[in-house]
Write a structure and sequence with these properties.
- This protein has 434 residues and is an alpha/beta fold.
- The protein has 14 helices and 16 strands.
- The chain has helices at residues 9-19, 61-64, 73-85, 94-106, 119-134, 169-172, 183-193, 216-229, 248-252, 278-281, 302-314, 317-341, 375-386, 405-428; strands at residues 40-44, 47-50, 55-58, 112-116, 138-142, 175-178, 197-202, 205-206, 212-213, 232-236, 258-262, 272-276, 345-350, 353-358, 389-390, 396-398.
- A hairpin with a 5-residue loop joins strand 8 (205-206) and strand 9 (212-213).
- It is globular.
- The protein starts with 8 loop residues before the first helix and ends in a 6-residue tail after the last helix.
- It binds pyridoxal-5'-phosphate.
């Protein structure tokens, strides 16, 4: 990686062109950053190359989906073969069976599964299953829990990035929110409305909400409350399947009724899945007179399912242990760099997932402690990109199986250079006393 000043004029020109075509020049809220997002042309392993030819270490990995980095040869080969056979058929396929078998082997709570095209759709499907099964409407989730772009599961109730404008109030009425990792908070919600609750939907690690690991005691309470009120427990493992071969549910020691998956089970292609107890998932069996519908033109398409099968085969226990160790190393090195440079920041992490927090006024233990709109985060993010270290603008990073210790060294060196820039700016403004 060359620490020289990067010219990104092609990205800038493309941003202007796109602004006449797409609102803000982008098509995903979470991928936008000022003054314009760098436009990528290609990826190679742990690196991406932008349209101006600059190289970056990719710790963004498309929001954790690319657990094997870019263009893993085994995945490319399998996709190439499938491409020559066809991309999609309105029919079952061997690849669906192979991917579903692998997921079932990993998650003992999953007896039957259905594929979707995104994690958001997986959540929609799981919630539909829970509502149909219980005959109830209400959903409970944690404040700051991210479950995709579906309006029925907003990250925060009422406000949040981008707001909840456009959601009918009748839809908002279907949701109750508790505080993550706070048993009494969930208990209070259930005591009030538990008998109307179809499902409690939780991330085993709150990822978008700041990489906050679930507390096993909280999840035990959630399981017990669901059982005593007749509600289902849905664990959203769209991201966290990367943390343990048996999902983070095995780490927490909790068995959900339904699990949602996505990201890495598509080998880099659009994907989602919802699975769980047979008696719940059987509702989707079209042989039943009262079956619950679930359609989707590209559900379980062979390209995605082939990619997902190879992705899972590559992600064995040893690979997971390695990326988790790399994540831990990255987290402690970044925290050390911030402490040394006097920048006010902290890191949270869980295995291969790492979150940079800035201007939080101390440790981050709950979603309420986060400050992802921090101006300093925005500036350090930009400076890190300019130094060749790419991660999500809200501070989320993750490791991939194609990284090694040297990748971590290079990322940390780039981060140190980015911090040094902040320091010189702050010193010039008289804000850092050391
Ligand atoms: C925990 C979780 N659930 C669901 C989703 C939605 O997945 P998708 O973006 O594929 O719709 C995400 C996406 O980041 C996620 O992190």
């Amino acid at each position: 990686l060359d620490p020289k000043v990067r010219i990104t004029s092609q990205s800038e020109a493309l941003a202007h062109r796109l602004r006449d075509l797409l609102p803000g020049g982008d098509t995903r809220s979470a991928t936008f950053y000022e003054p314009y997002p760098i436009a990528m042309a290609r990826g190679e392993g742990e690196r991406v190359i932008d349209v101006d030819g600059n190289e970056y270490l990719d710790f963004w990995n498309n929001f954790t989906a690319l657990v094997h980095g870019h263009c893993h040869p085994d995945i490319v080969r399998a996709l190439g073969t499938q491409l020559s056979f066809g991309t999609v058929f309105p029919s079952p396929s061997v690849a669906q069976a192979e991917l579903a078998e692998r997921i079932k082997e990993r998650l003992k709570s999953v007896e039957l599964i259905r594929f979707t095209n995104s994690g958001s759709e997986a959540v929609m499907l799981a919630v539909r299953a829970a509502r149909a099964f219980t005959g109830r409407d209400l959903l409970v989730k944690a404040d700051g829990g991210y479950h995709g772009c579906w309006e029925q599961v907003p990250m925060t109730q009422g406000q949040g990035i981008g707001g909840q404008r456009g959601t009918p109030s009748a839809v908002n009425d279907l949701l109750r929110v508790c505080t993550y990792n706070d048993g009494p908070s969930l208990r209070a919600v259930m005591e009030e409305v538990g008998e109307q609750v179809a499902a409690v939907l939780l991330e085993p690690v709150m990822v978008g909400g700041g990489v906050l690991a679930g507390d096993p005691t909280f999840f035990k309470t959630a399981r017990e409350l669901c059982d005593s009120y007749g509600a289902l427990l849905i664990l959203d493992e769209v991201v966290t399947l990367r943390l343990d071969a048996h999902g983070y549910q095995s780490v927490l020691g909790v068995e959900p009724d339904l699990t949602t998956l996505g990201k890495l089970i598509g080998g880099g292609l659009p994907v989602g899945a919802a699975g769980g107890r047979a008696r719940i998932m059987e509702q989707f069996d079209p042989r039943r007179a009262d079956f619950v519908g679930h359609s989707g033109t590209f559900n379980g398409n062979p390209l995605t399912t082939v990619g997902g099968r190879v992705s899972l085969d590559l992600l064995d226990d040893e690979a997971i242990a390695r990326i988790n160790a790399l994540g831990e190393a990255l987290a402690s090195r970044l925290a050390g760099s911030m402490a040394d440079s006097g920048v006010e920041g902290t890191i949270t992490n869980c295995g291969s997932l790492v979150q940079l927090h800035l201007q939080t006024g101390g440790q981050v233990r709950a979603y309420a402690d986060t400050n992802m709109g921090s101006d300093l985060l925005r500036r350090i993010h930009r400076a890190s990109i300019e130094e060749g270290f790419l991660f999500a603008s809200r501070g989320l990073m993750c490791t991939s199986t194609v990284m090694d210790d040297e990748t971590i060294d290079q990322a940390c060196e780039a981060f140190d250079r980015a911090l040094a820039r902040m320091e010189s700016v702050a010193l010039a403004a008289g804000r850092v006393g050391r």
